[in-house]
């Protein structure tokens, strides 16, 4: 799909068998598994409840159950029809979608256009969450109606050229006959096992034992290559990788820590896949507090971060320095010319301009508005790479004359401080949805993540937002967004620290069908679907 019109496309219902990734750096004896299996066991990092998509669940797990109109995600340049067979933009604000007529829900009910219309209307009425901005603001969809048993029309309140490549590739479709009995205001309270059209059914869930999925033998895109997925919760990362090394599990839903890569690569039983993720660690600046509300102060801090050192020390050189800024360079809409250099001289000049000067010669700058006290940087005390990154940030800012005090917190306290914006500085992992979805970049400025505070004007962004909203083609909209990216990089409210490579380990003596898809690592539904289907969906990341 390119431009504003998608070509007609029907996915083949073919079961193909192919080894998609092999054990990288392991001996020949490692690749003794197959690309099909009766059961694969994957440790997951947290208990996400019964996978209610309105309760903040992980995309990788919910997409085993639910499908979208296009596949695989907004993180590829050309999403392909999935539950849809064709997607057409008929005007600046209107899209027509033709749907497959051979799809059933897990409980046997047929999938129809009414389900699609219902899903979008339900999300419009549901509380704000992971998906709802795609309906209520960016874009703003005024009506969705079934125009036939297998056709739907979407009408937006203003031009929505990216509806096909972004929105329809991101929103899961819900069964009307299940969710119509749920009050949208209480969507987060739904605790029944989900019903979808996807390749797997969640047949068992327990907070103590985790998850068990069974393959959907009636799946429209072909029989899944693994019959059963067992997913116990192993929150402790060290324990999870110990279980992988000993063969108690077959994979983990997170990347190896950098120091484990060489150990696992040398193993004769463990394969290692290297991926380029969209996620990365970021430093958030609390723009609602002084002096972070000042664009010049934030710009100075941005120039003071030595990203090459950050990559070498924290990621052991495995990745790229974050010199392109907030939007990940692999995102389809990223500005290839974006640049956030390390420039301590320019940082010092900007700090001088905003009145932060070292008047007593002690090497630290004084606050022109009051007492000079160290800024507090909160970080997850159990995340060793983030703690090391915090130490380097404090070191870099200290060289610029800005004192920083690191405050490690437990995960619960960190989440509470984040929700209340009770911090000066905060290191966390940014998600693919935040930095790989073009509409979320806009929404983040309008929902207090990157901006939107009633007492803080941002006229420069407002001008660019109006320009963005007036565009009617993908090309013009991306160009407008890249202007926003340049503005943000000049005076960011969040600073990219480094773009890591990720290395994912798996038991190569058990199952070898793992593939990388942008933004998702290797634990996702595309690793468990026939190779022909994965290729047709444009789901596999390009190989170097």
Note the main attributes of this structure.
five-stranded mixed beta sheet, 26% helix, 544 residues, alpha+beta, disordered N terminus
What is the number of E strands?
20
| Estimated structural class | alpha+beta
Average pLDDT number? 91
Query: Can you give the helix content as a percent range?
Result: 25-40%
In terms of DSSP E residues, the strand content is: 15-25%
Major sheet: 5 strands, mixed
Cα shape: globular
Could you give the order of strands across the largest sheet? 8-9-10-1-11
Rg, Cα atoms, Å: 24 Å
Instruction: List segments where confidence is low: pLDDT < 50 over at least 5 consecutive residues.
Output: 1-30
User: Helical element count?
Assistant: 16
Rounded to the nearest angstrom, the distance between the terminal CA atoms is 23 Å
Explain what the structure shows:
With 544 residues, the chain is α+β, with helices and mostly antiparallel strands. The chain contains 16 helices and 20 strands. It has a five-stranded mixed sheet with strand order 8-9-10-1-11, with helices on one face. Strand 2 (70-71) and strand 3 form a beta hairpin. The radius of gyration is 24 Å and the shape is globular. Mean pLDDT is 91; it is low at 1-30.
Short description:
This protein has 544 residues and is α+β, with helices and mostly antiparallel strands. Helix content is 26%, strand content 19%.
């Amino acid at each position: 799909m390119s431009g504003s019109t998608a070509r007609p496309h029907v996915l083949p219902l073919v079961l193909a068998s192919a080894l998609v990734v092999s054990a990288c750096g392991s001996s020949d004896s490692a690749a003794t598994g197959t690309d099909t299996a009766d059961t694969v066991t994957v440790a997951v990092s947290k208990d996400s409840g019964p996978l209610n998509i309105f309760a903040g669940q992980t995309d990788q797990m919910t997409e085993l159950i639910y499908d979208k109109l296009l596949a695989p995600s907004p993180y590829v340049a050309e999403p392909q029809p999935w539950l849809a067979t064709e997607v057409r933009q008929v005007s600046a604000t209107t899209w027509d979608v033709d749907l497959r007529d051979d799809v059933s829900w897990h409980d046997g009910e047929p999938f129809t256009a009414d389900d699609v219309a219902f899903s979008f209307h339900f999300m419009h009425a549901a509380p704000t969450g992971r998906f709802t901005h795609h309906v209520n603001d960016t874009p703003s969809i005024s009506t969705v109606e079934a125009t036939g048993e297998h056709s739907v029309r979407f009408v937006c309140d203003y031009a929505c050229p990216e509806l096909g490549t972004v929105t329809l590739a991101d929103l899961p479709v819900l069964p009307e006959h299940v969710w119509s009995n749920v009050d949208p205001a209480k969507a987060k309270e739904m605790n029944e096992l989900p019903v979808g059209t996807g390749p797997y059914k969640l047949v068992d869930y327990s907070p103590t034992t985790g998850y068990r999925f069974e393959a959907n033998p009636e799946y429209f895109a072909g029989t899944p290559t693994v019959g059963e997925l067992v997913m116990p919760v192993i929150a402790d990362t060290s324990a999870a990788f110990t279980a992988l090394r000993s063969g108690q599990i077959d994979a983990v839903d997170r990347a190896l820590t950098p120091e484990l890569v060489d150990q696992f690569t040398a193993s004769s039983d463990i394969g290692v896949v290297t991926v380029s993720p969209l996620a990365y660690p970021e430093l958030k600046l609390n723009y609602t507090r002084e002096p972070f509300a000042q664009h010049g102060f934030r710009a100075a801090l941005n120039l003071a971060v030595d990203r090459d050192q950050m990559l070498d020390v924290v990621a052991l050189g495995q990745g790229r320095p974050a010199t392109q800024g907030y939007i990940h360079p692999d995102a389809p809409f990223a500005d290839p010319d974006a640049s956030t250099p390390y420039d301590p001289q320019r940082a010092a000049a900007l700090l001088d301009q905003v009145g932060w000067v070292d008047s007593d010669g002690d090497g630290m700058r004084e606050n022109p508005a009051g007492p000079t006290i160290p800024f507090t940087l909160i970080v997850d005390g159990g995340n060793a790479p983030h703690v090391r990154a915090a130490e380097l940030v404090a070191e870099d800012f200290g060289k610029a004359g800005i004192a920083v005090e690191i405050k490690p917190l437990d995960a619960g306290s960190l989440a509470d401080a984040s929700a209340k914006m009770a911090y000066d500085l905060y290191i966390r992992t940014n998600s693919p949805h935040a930095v790989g979805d073009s509409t979320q970049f806009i929404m983040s400025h309008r929902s207090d993540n990157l901006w939107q505070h009633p007492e803080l004007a941002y006229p420069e962004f407002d001008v660019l937002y109006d320009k963005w909203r007036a565009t009617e083609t993908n090309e013009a909209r991306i160009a407008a967004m890249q202007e926003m990216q340049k503005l943000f990089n000049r005076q960011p409210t969040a600073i990219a620290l480094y773009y890591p490579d990720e290395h994912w380990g798996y038991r190569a003596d058990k199952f070898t069908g793992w593939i990388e898809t942008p933004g998702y690592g290797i634990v996702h539904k595309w690793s468990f679907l026939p190779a022909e289907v994965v290729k047709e969906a444009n789901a596999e990341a390009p190989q170097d």
